[in-house]
């Protein structure tokens, strides 16, 4: 423990980056108290603290006056005021390194945010460039054609009309003939089914093919 004339004014940086100035006659014990949450009320919720600078060999009265001046001084000049216009080179270098570290952390954070933004943009562009998945369209089922057999005013039975008969009836009712597109529109059958039916009808000699694929009754 120091005697009067051996008081110390010290400046520490708290965990929230704020500064605290105090006086003591046992610097090591006082710093430990701060970091154990038993020091000043201001530092209890701001631990740990880091020593930035000191002024030794002062009377208690001198220390109290300097402490008061430092507390009234703006944060960026407190360390200089503590050093009587000359900041401790070691402490100044420490502060510079801390500032550089803080700036580097800020740069790393900005780079990470930029990388995330670029990743999101790449995903969006990929979705725009990627062709939509082909939608499998279900072929429309041709309406069922039925023939009602009536006897003595009573429905005797209902017969399903064969697809080939439907196509043949349409061709028969088309004096000028009809092509594949016309048959597809009239029957709702797909192109492959029309081709199969017309092939069988031609083979049976029931229809003939004219110019430009027009089907006519033989």
Describe the 3D structure.
The chain folds into two domains: 7-100, 3-Layer(aba) Sandwich (GIY-YIG endonuclease), CATH 3.40.1440; 146-217, Arc Repressor Mutant, subunit A. 47% of the residues lie in helices and 19% in strands. The protein is built from eight helices and seven strands, in the order ββααβαααββαααββ. It has helices at residues 27-35, 41-44, 60-72, 78-82, 89-129, 163-172, 180-187, 191-203; strands spanning 7-13, 19-24, 50-58, 146-151, 154-160, 207-209, 215-217. A hairpin with a 5-residue loop joins strand 1 (7-13) and strand 2. Helix 6 (163-172) packs across helix 8.
Q: What secondary-structure arrangement, pairings included, does this model have?
A:
Elements: E1 7-13, E2 19-24, H1 27-35, H2 41-44, E3 50-58, H3 60-72, H4 78-82, H5 89-129, E4 146-151, E5 154-160, H6 163-172, H7 180-187, H8 191-203, E6 207-209, E7 215-217
Antiparallel strand pairs: 1-2, 1-3, 4-5, 6-7
Helix pairs in contact: 6-8
Tally of DSSP helical segments = 8
Question: How is the largest sheet built, in terms of strand order?
Answer: 2-1-3
CATH architecture of the largest domain: 3-Layer(aba) Sandwich
Helix proportion of residues, in percent? 40-55%
Order of helices and strands: EEHHEHHHEEHHHEE
Average pLDDT metric:
80
Radius of gyration: 49 Å
Taking the alpha carbons of the first and last residues, their distance comes to: 128 Å
Uncertain runs are none
Task: Name the beta content range.
Answer: 15-25%
Number of strands: 7
The count of domains is 2
The largest β sheet comes out as: 3 strands, antiparallel
Question: CATH class of the largest domain, anyone?
Answer: Alpha Beta
CATH fold description of the largest domain: GIY-YIG endonuclease
Classification by helices and strands: alpha+beta
Q: Globular, elongated, flat, extended or rod-shaped: what is the shape?
A: rod-shaped
């Amino acid at each position: 423990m120091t005697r009067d004339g051996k008081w110390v004014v010290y400046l520490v940086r708290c965990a929230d980056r704020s500064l605290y100035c105090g006086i003591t006659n046992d610097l090591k014990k006082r710093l430990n108290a701060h970091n154990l949450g038993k020091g000043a009320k201001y530092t209890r919720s701001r631990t740990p603290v880091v020593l930035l600078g000191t002024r030794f060999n002062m009377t208690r009265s001198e220390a109290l006056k300097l402490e008061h001046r430092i507390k009234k001084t703006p944060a960026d000049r407190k360390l200089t005021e503590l050093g009587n216009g000359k900041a401790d080179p070691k402490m100044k270098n420490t502060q510079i390194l801390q500032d550089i570290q803080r700036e580097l952390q800020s740069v790393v954070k900005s780079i990470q945010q930029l990388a995330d933004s670029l990743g999101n943009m790449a995903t969006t562009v990929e979705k725009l460039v990627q062709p939509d998945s082909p939608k499998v369209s279900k072929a429309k089922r041709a309406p069922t054609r039925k023939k009602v057999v009536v006897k003595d005013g009573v429905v005797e039975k209902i017969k399903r009309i064969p697809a080939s008969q439907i196509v043949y009836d349409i061709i028969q009712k088309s004096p000028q003939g009809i092509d594949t597109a016309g048959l597809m529109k009239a029957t709702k059958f797909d192109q492959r089914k029309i081709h199969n039916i017309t092939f069988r009808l031609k083979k049976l000699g029931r229809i003939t093919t004219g110019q430009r694929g027009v089907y006519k009754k033989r």
